[in-house]
TrEMBL record:
<comment type="function">
    <text>Functions as a ribosomal silencing factor. Interacts with ribosomal protein uL14 (rplN), blocking formation of intersubunit bridge B8. Prevents association of the 30S and 50S ribosomal subunits and the formation of functional ribosomes, thus repressing translation.</text>
</comment>
<comment type="subunit">
    <text>Interacts with ribosomal protein uL14 (rplN).</text>
</comment>
<keyword id="KW-0678">Repressor</keyword>
<dbReference type="Pfam" id="PF02410">
    <property type="entry name" value="RsfS"/>
</dbReference>
<comment type="similarity">
    <text>Belongs to the Iojap/RsfS family.</text>
</comment>
<dbReference type="InterPro" id="IPR004394">
    <property type="entry name" value="Iojap/RsfS/C7orf30"/>
</dbReference>
<keyword id="KW-0810">Translation regulation</keyword>
<keyword id="KW-0963">Cytoplasm</keyword>
<feature type="region of interest" description="Disordered">
    <location>
        <begin position="1"/>
        <end position="49"/>
    </location>
</feature>
<protein>
    <recommendedName>
        <fullName>Ribosomal silencing factor RsfS</fullName>
    </recommendedName>
</protein>
<dbReference type="InterPro" id="IPR043519">
    <property type="entry name" value="NT_sf"/>
</dbReference>
Amino acid sequence: MLPLLERPAPGPARRATQEDDVLSHSDPATGLPVGPRAPRMSETATATAPAYTSEEILAAVLKSVDDDKAEDIVQIDLRGRSDVADYMVICSGRSSRQVAAISEKLVDRLKQDFRLHTKMEGKETGDWVLIDTGDVIVHVFRPEVREFYQLEKMWLPGSAHRGA
């Protein structure tokens, strides 16, 4: 028989969950985001090294996907609208192979330039790859998959800027 786990006493002394710690940049009264998050330090940064901002990561992402010939690049500003990230980038590759290559090169460049370890999902199939940098979320689609999901429609209202 398993022993009973001790639960913290209810009330203000009770410790918040880990999720509450992560989403601490929300207004506790309304639960709505209160603005952009503070810049993060790279894993190997020291006190003398500058912190990187979400804008710097966004610029690196946009340059990388453009250099790798991604098509129909859309940048969406999520600041003040979502706790998930500050920006979202959506782009397309012409084939599964190009989608995987765009994604892999982006992750490598972010690791090299910012020493940033990102999370990537979907590279094996190459239909839709999601790259989470923490501050910028990147979706790389094959055109047919992008058309099917129409992810931009959920986030576009007045805040997207189409790239080259």
